[in-house]
Amino acid sequence: MRRRFFDHYQPLPYREQNKVVREYTENFEDTVGNQAIIRYCDYINAKGSLTEKYALNVKWVGHKDILRGKEKKTFLKGYYNYTEDFVVDWYDGPLSYFFYIEGEIYFARCWDFEQGEYESFIVTKIKKGAERYVEHLVEESKSFEEREMALIQEGLMLDMYAVKDYFKGRKDTEVLRGEKAIKEYNKLIKKYCNYEYSL
Question: pTM score, two decimals?
């Protein structure tokens, strides 16, 4: 059989003398948290030998500490759509408030510019039932940094988020969590308070 001109440029498993028996994808995460989808195949070569898990291509899809897609959309919907019932700190707009996503509780600390336009540096995910403790810390007029430290010391903080956003509804808003959120938070706290911590 005459070889076609473009066979040489096909991936090895798909060349004429080989036979692909299975094609599949797997999720992959590297040591620094970058995530990808890798497409593999198993094939039999011209000698009848089976080669398994031959990598065809890699599609990088994001980072474990950066929210994207539906997860990001759901988070921002909760973050923006607070109600006054959940506000615990107010000055010309909500400075600190709770919001809820699928039964999970988040505590946001915002700095306001004009009504409806907020810049949020940090959001903490807290254990269920911890709202009253947070309100108690606010009533004691503790600084935001002291509140965060108290949540950590009491084992009430589950995760940390940073919303890099200046105006409500911006499409390029970033939502960081975990180590990336801590890094962003430390950068801001060091700038304003010369203070640093890690979870």
Answer: 0.70
Checking if the pLDDT of 43 tops 50, the result is yes
User: In this structure, which long-range contacts are made by residues 91-95, counting pairs with CB atoms below 8 Å and at least 24 apart in sequence?
Assistant: 93/118, 94/118
For residues 156 and 191, which has the higher predicted lDDT (pLDDT)? 156
Beta carbons within 8 Å of 132's beta carbon, 6+ residues apart: none
Q: Which residue has the tokens 């995910």?
A: 125
